[in-house]
Amino acid sequence: MRVTVRKAHEELGLPTDPESIDKRWEALNNQVDLLVTQRQIQLYQQWMSQKAPYPTSERDMEKLWEREQMQAANQVIYEELTEPIIAKSLDEEENISRAEDLL
């Protein structure tokens, strides 16, 4: 994820020094961990109330947590890095369009 953070920082004009990248990477990882923990709590509650089937094997449980980790990472990357890049691109396109209209 560090490479993704560095490339996003380059695209957004944010600092790309190793310390800045490491701090952002750590903050994003903390967000991922928080989302996974929240999802684990939700699943445990559902299992306790029998609203969702409990994984029947250790391997199924491992796959579930891996999937939750990946989904959380994708969500955080999208919200924290991809959305700002999209917004910047749209803003630049709008500014170009306005400039063309003035010519």
Arithmetic mean pLDDT: 91
Radius of gyration: 20 Å
* Percent of residues in β-strands: under 5%
Alpha-beta classification: mainly alpha
Record field, number of beta strands: 0
Q: How much helical structure, as a percent, in the residues?
A: over 70%
What is the H-and-E element order?
A: HHH
Give start-end ranges of low-pLDDT stretches. none
Work out the oligomeric state of the chains in this entry: single chain
Quick summary of this structure?
With 103 residues, the protein is an all-alpha fold.
What can you see in these coordinates?
The chain is an all-alpha fold and 103 residues long. Helices cover 84% and strands 0% of the residues.
Could you list some keywords that capture this structure?
elongated, mainly alpha, 103 residues, 84% helix
Give the SSE map.
Blueprint: H1 2-12, H2 18-48, H3 58-102
Helix pairs in contact: 1-2, 1-3, 2-3
